[in-house]
Amino acid sequence: MKYSLIIPVYNRPDEVDELLESLTGQTFTDFETVVVEDGSSRPCRDVVEKYAGRLSVKYYDKPNSGPGQTRNYGAERSSGEYLIVLDSDCVLPPGYLQAVDDELRGEPADAFGGPDRAHESFTDVQKAISYAMTSFFTTGGIRGGKKKMDKFYPRSFNMGVRAEVYRRLGGFSKMRFGEDIDFSIRIFKAGCSCRLFPDAWVWHKRRTDMKKFFKQVHNSGIARINLYKKYPESLKLVHLLPMVFTVGACCLLLAALVGWVGSVWIFQMTHRYVYAVEMPGLMQHAAVFHALSWIPLLPLLLFALLICADATVANRSLKIGVQAVGASFVQLTGYGTGFLRAWWQRCVRGKDEFSAFEKNFYK
């Protein structure tokens, strides 16, 4: 068996159905699929059984332990030369595995990963979120784009590893947040070759609303500090940008608020003085001061216009462009606040990874 596709699942039977259906259309067929249920209350066993005659598929059900340990569980029960880890909310184009195989035959690699895209069937919100997570203007292109500010680290929604390397390195760690980047860092540290396969992309649904998206990226910000505590050299300039954006946006908003409140107070005082001494020119000066109080918001407005224009062109939709502005602000501030929260808890207060964040993703 050339490839084993490892799919951890938690309460996503509908998404698993879409993913397995996409696997039946793969042009490269030397693969098995290992679906591992992570203690779901809505299991997907019946969904998997539908594909028993169309795919080489295995199904396992285990107590909840989070995605990292669930991937390890599936890897232990797989037989492929390469393990490909996928999120259950991904859908694969027909040529995905062929693209992977072509890359490996052209130049071997111990580990690899691919980018993600938004499918035409995705909702406008999902497309806006996809833009926010893949745009150079929001993530620096570090999630598989051609333009990037840091080297490519495979992520668990679309990650491949030679089975021998996976087992030698012990697979995913028990980190609560950032276990996939932790694994990628260990792959590099072990001297293994790791590459981006640009044509091995997937359609990735990600989150379905902004509230869930904020929680996801907030946890990613926490993960970055956890990784810094474990690998200090892993923290790069690009990882600081969402935090800088968040702090800067708060300062600009505060400056605008102070200026606006101050201008209103001056306007009221001037208004009284004008009637007292009959000097209407002072009213004009107060109005100018009021207008100037909005200047701190210009950088945020210009950034919003840039995002809107770029996302509109990329998606050929002004509606998605407007929603991408909101998604981008959620992405940057969500990550930034998670980063700051983890920095305070772990670097200032000195708490460990688990006591700092008692509320877990899972159970």
UniProtKB/TrEMBL annotation:
Any Pfam family hit: Glycos_transf_2
Residue spans crossing the bilayer: 237-267, 287-309
Domain of life: Bacteria
This protein's name: Glycosyltransferase, group 2 family protein
GO MF annotation list: glycosyltransferase activity
Residues of the Glycosyltransferase 2-like domain: 4-148
Organism the protein comes from: Paraprevotella clara YIT 11840
Entry annotated with the keyword Chaperone: no
Record keywords: Glycosyltransferase, Membrane, Transferase, Transmembrane, Transmembrane helix
Keyword Hydrolase set for record: no
Family stated for the protein in its record: Belongs to the glycosyltransferase 2 family.
